[in-house]
Specification:
262 residues, alpha/beta, binds adenosine-5'-triphosphate, transport, ATP binding, Metal_Ion_Import_ABC, translocase, ABC_transporter-like_ATP-bd
Length: 262
Amino acid sequence: MISAHQVGLEIAGRQLLQDISLELRPAEIVTVIGPNGAGKTTLLRLLLGLTRPTSGEVERLPGLRLGYMPQRLQIDATMPMTVARFLQLGIEGVSVADALARVAAPHLAGSRLADLSGGEMQRVLLARAAARKPQLLVLDEPTQGVDLGGQSEVYQLIAQLRDELKCGVLLVSHDLHLVMAATDRVLCLNQHICCHGHPEQVSRDPAYLEMFGDKLAPYTHHHNHHHDIGGEIVDEDCNHDHDHAVTPPPSRTGTRNSGERN
Ligand SMILES: Nc1ncnc2c1ncn2[C@@H]1O[C@H](COP(=O)(O)OP(=O)(O)OP(=O)(O)O)[C@@H](O)[C@H]1O
């Protein structure tokens, strides 16, 4: 559905992303992980066409229907907009009842957007992203503001949406312990793609264990190279090439991409 070919983005002399090559295929859940400031949101924006790359190329299937859930939505507390109105804004013929049923939140239709809890807001954003029946659902940190118990529910919802809409899902997440169980492929990003693969294999791979340790441990990051504060690679022994063509392996039992470190 979307292919990136050696995509890079430089703004004001700073290289935010470099050498990103990947392909997103239908009905796959692909998760982008990486530390704060790694460029995850920027990558989503490039793939969606909201930002133009300064090098390389992004190709999208013509007419691709996209549903995008941004990382945050700034709501003016005085804005009287209801959830129902928000779901209908700019989307023709959307059924509010169906959209909210899809995220198990039918009771929220008449609520004011500004009054929603963190978890309720994430469900409403998810409902809106799914309302166009997208071929690709793009979710930027969908569990932000959701308590620990609610996070796995959000991931279950995402899996249900994928099954119902038969869409691909591209998501950014910091919830390693949850996404590793619920994703088909993981991309680890830090200005470039540091490693990628199927989670079942990657989580057993020494390279993954070296990077993240125990899955349930707090998020730590170790690579065979280091980045300076601006994200530049500073290790002299990081002499691998950064040509990262990330495509799905032929089967879930294959090992081609498992824990591959670039
Ligand atoms: N339009 C822009 N102009 C200049 N710098 C930008 C722009 N957009 C993003 N950046 C910078 O690029 C870096 C990556 O930002 P991005 O939001 O993509 O990171 P992220 O991986 O999503 O981080 P987080 O996990 O904290 O959400 C940040 O240092 C950010 O300040």
